[in-house]
Sequence to fold (379 residues):
Amino acid sequence: MEWDTRLIHDGQEPDPLTGAVNVPIYLSTTFRQSSPGVGTGYVYSRTGNPTRAALERALARIEGGAGALAFGSGLAAISALVMSYPKGSRIVAGDDLYHGATRLLELSRTHGVRVDFVDTTNLANVRKAFASGPPVSLLYLESPTNPLLKITDLKAAAAIARRGRATVAVDNTFASPVLQRPIELGADIVVHSMTKYIGGHSDVLGGALVLRTQELLDRLYWFQNSAGGVPSPFDCYLLIRGLRTLGVRVRQHVANAQQVAEYLSHHPRIVRTLYPGLPGHPGHEIARRQMDGFGGMVSAEVAGGQRAAIGVAKRLKLFTLAESLGGVESLVNHPALMTHRAMPLAEQKAKGISGGLLRLSIGIEDAEDLIGDLRQALA
Fold:
């Protein structure tokens, strides 16, 4: 089946009991057992819920995994993954990540886990990390990254990790399964903040881990069930609804983002435009090879630094000044003062997150209107 058909039908068959076309919302927290320890397979909604199971089944089929685990947020999913590595483990991670992931990885150091951050866009850094120091347990990647939209060659990085007998996890939030399927490229675990493109309407929190093997699924399920950071049945229903329109939405995000990026790349007040769909982007060729589109996120640095960037953000009318991304509406974010504010200033500068940087989540409005809004804000 083609993608849009799969997004609507995979794992979302009509309810066998009633024939309902939409997956029912099972609000019950507990389930009857015919005899102690004998029942339908559902015991308690933290442990398992039919609506959540439908969401997890759909995610696994779409990403190509043995199974999936849904969580109450993206950070809850990342937390379960990081928690699953005990004292003495070693994690190698990209140096430009969602800052919440960076904080969790840094926190794991207090539990005796060694974490090394490297620029994974240069595969020599990945090889060096595996060749020196203790064995690596987990290679944690983002591509495209947040907020600098760097691209890592996932297939090549996964091959390095495989030779080092390490597990590979890829945060696929920015791409979504419509544009990139990391398991097909060699990853073992796919991470999603479903709050973003999968939910798609800025009205529900959710996270997910999609696992290549049953062994990984069983291991991570233990942490999902034990920590209990699961989404409600209603949240799962909304996320299933989001999956069904994901294909058509993402294609419009990508088409709009390409036009916005091309406009900004020629604007005299923009110092640099970061978008993998631009031929001058250092990861353009890799992105073209491993993605089915370049995504809906564009970052741009305004000439004049932080004061100028804040002025542009405040003058925008169609773009809402807000955190998050991936909704149908366009958003503008100032990473240095918003999503990455907790990062020390020296670290921001070292990573290239300047005061003039704006991160744009391009929505599905008419591209001409979005460009017109940017034009007046930059005037």
Summary: The first helix runs from residue 3 to 9. The chain is about 40% helix and 15% strand.
